Amino acid sequence: MRRPLGSGRSGNGGRLRRGTAVSAAVLLAATTAAACGGRDDGDDGGTATGACEGQQTTGITDSSLKLGGIYPLSGPASAYGAIPKGIKAYFDYVNKEKGGVDGRQVEFVVRDDGYQPPKAVEEARRLVEQEQVFALFQTLGTPSTTATWDYTSQRKVPQIFVATGASKWGTDDKHPWTIGWQPNYVSEARVYAQHLKQEKPKAKVAVLFQNDDFGKDLLDGFKKAIEGSEIKIVQEESYEVTDPSVEAQMRDLAGSGADVFLNVTTPKFGSQALAADAKITDWNPLHILNNVAASVTVLEPVGFKNVQGVVSSTYYKDPNDPQWADDAEMKLYRDKMKQYSPGADPNVPYHAFGWAVATSFHKTLEAAECKTREGLRDSMRNLKDVEVPMLLPGVKMSTGPDDGFPIEAMQMMKFEGERWTLTGEVIDTRKVFGPLGD
């Protein structure tokens, strides 16, 4: 392998600090497991030979691969239910036309947790113990992933490319089996801070955030990124995922005198905040909408005329952006979505997200020296400038012993007309702010 196993920097009480990604004891344990770990009782045979002998091959054979995904197909975050459609279309395409992923036909089993952590644990157990999946590929949401990663760590099951940007997936040294994919919320916050430093260096910011690890992670990252500048947060309001609406919080924020509104919400509440902002005629701040709520499916119910000038950030190609009309990967994506998921609209960005993360998994498994659970764990933490065609030019996947974050570069975008338009250049937060935790 190119580099030894690592898992990013360790965290302490939500604060990020510089340090070795995995402690010596954890590294030794992981190395020992890779050398002589036993297979699960439910092992169906596999491909471990030579140096890979004895590693876990549950869910994978020479010709097949079984993955499990957990998404909120129902409940307050059900808009994310579009993601597995893009993933399945990609796997169906490579299964039927490319011989599968690394020569293996992929079965992708999707479970619904309704965005409820206890349900996510129940589904994770069902996928691992009953379905006997090789890995959990995508567990959506910070609360659900937090609820399940102790279990996957204990069972030594890869929990790869979870659909949440919490920074702890790359800073915790006790869960080497779990890793994120999308830019973490601290890196995303850094992008917004850098944008304001350039465009509104004396901004007064009002913040609406989800009162959980997701919302607090991005908000804390933003606060740290504006330290030493003249940008000030003048008011904060939180909401619970069980709240019926955020209209009351929006009215309070409108009286803050802020000229920037940082909207840290999931899709349902993102739409509500956008609609409330449009109704408040005497408040016209620069509206920054966090990436996880930036799909056109969130903006369209509000009315495109009411969301003009809203800004956000992205790292993958938007199927609604005409600049990608002749892009080879976008053409392939559109063609195969119509062929393998005819009921799904290829213009929905969450479908493109799913396609991109499935491609990322494909490349990660191919790079694994051992086609085992241990081999996948090692490969996902030893990526080096991996190009994924659906990512923006200049955005690549890299991880290593001191870096557990595959993607840390993003580009700002502004909503104009009926679509997002990219603005400025790709901001690589590693280069602008230094490695996360410095």
TrEMBL record:
Report if keyword Signal is assigned. Answer: yes
Its keywords, alphabetically, are:
Signal
Q: Give positions of region: Disordered.
A: 38-58
Q: Where is the Leucine-binding protein domain?
A: 65-416
Q: Using the record, list the residue span of the signal peptide; answer none if the entry has no such feature.
A: 1-35
Is this entry keyworded rRNA processing?
Answer: no
State the family it belongs to. Belongs to the leucine-binding protein family.
Protein name, UniProt field: Branched-chain amino acid transport system substrate-binding protein
